[in-house]
Amino acid sequence: MTIAPPDNDVLWARALLKSHRGTPALRGVSLGVREGEVLAVTGPRGCGKSTLIDCLSGLSPADEGEVWFNSSPVHTLGRAARERLRRERFGYVGPEPRLVPELTARENVALPLLLAGAPRKAAATAAAEWLERLDVADCARLRPADLRQDQRQRIAVARALAHRPTVVFADEPTAPLHRADRDQVLRILVTASRSHRITLVLATHDPGLARYADRVATMSDGRISAPVLVRPAMAVRPAQAVDPAAGQAVEQAVEQAVEQAVEPVPDVREEGAEQCSPTSV
Ligand SMILES: Nc1ncnc2c1ncn2[C@@H]1O[C@H](COP(=O)(O)OP(=O)(O)OP(=O)(O)O)[C@@H](O)[C@H]1O
């Protein structure tokens, strides 16, 4: 029997199973991602966050289970159709900036726009604007080999956002950055996503980064092990306006959930928030 995904979920996954060379990485993950929200997927190293991101984004299909995007099945698409979906509707930032070495920073950022059919000049202008937002405007004419790792990652973030995708998948996006740069880059990523109504799925083992999210799903050993915190008030506030006390409480709760893995997350909800069971995520 096929169960239709809920209308208000831009992404919806059911009962995902995935193994790497016989070792299970996902053991039955069901997850819904709402349009325009920032969903953090957190948990210790090796719990399956990257594998989940890869399955949701169509990079690497699950062995079993379903993934739906805007009520269309992704799990039944062939490789070419998945690649097209990824190129046109999704953005991706990984833990390592993967830029085209032959292209300048501006050309790298303009590339998804050009592939989507934007005129050359408009793509170059938009790329320059995104580089400016990410504080790397002065790198526009340089190639990746001439840039520092943190500059390359900022450019990768600009590239993921420039074509205004429906969903950005960010897998440990601050990994190559110095501590001082992490907050700034994440704020830009979150703020830009919110202002352009881009849905952001953020995988991170750092509970501190999960404070930027509207909801937090904690994974353990290939499963979503703890309830998702729902903070509707944060969905309408820019990242800069996050109440530090609420952010700290969420961070502590997520840290605790990661440590305890299977214990429920303590209730640190803001007034009016709801809490979902993993199956209704
Ligand atoms: N290509 C692969 N080949 C073999 N095993 C893999 C592969 N990719 C992931 N795994 C294994 O699958 C499990 C889940 O890994 P995954 O990278 O999804 O977790 P993660 O939570 O993202 O961890 P990390 O933060 O370290 O990337 C781990 O046990 C990992 O060793």
TrEMBL record:
<feature type="domain" description="ABC transporter">
    <location>
        <begin position="11"/>
        <end position="246"/>
    </location>
</feature>
<dbReference type="InterPro" id="IPR027417">
    <property type="entry name" value="P-loop_NTPase"/>
</dbReference>
<dbReference type="InterPro" id="IPR015854">
    <property type="entry name" value="ABC_transpr_LolD-like"/>
</dbReference>
<dbReference type="Pfam" id="PF00005">
    <property type="entry name" value="ABC_tran"/>
</dbReference>
<dbReference type="InterPro" id="IPR003593">
    <property type="entry name" value="AAA+_ATPase"/>
</dbReference>
<keyword id="KW-0547">Nucleotide-binding</keyword>
<dbReference type="GO" id="GO:0005524">
    <property type="term" value="F:ATP binding"/>
</dbReference>
<protein>
    <submittedName>
        <fullName>ABC transporter ATP-binding protein</fullName>
    </submittedName>
</protein>
<comment type="similarity">
    <text>Belongs to the ABC transporter superfamily.</text>
</comment>
<dbReference type="InterPro" id="IPR003439">
    <property type="entry name" value="ABC_transporter-like_ATP-bd"/>
</dbReference>
<keyword id="KW-0067">ATP-binding</keyword>
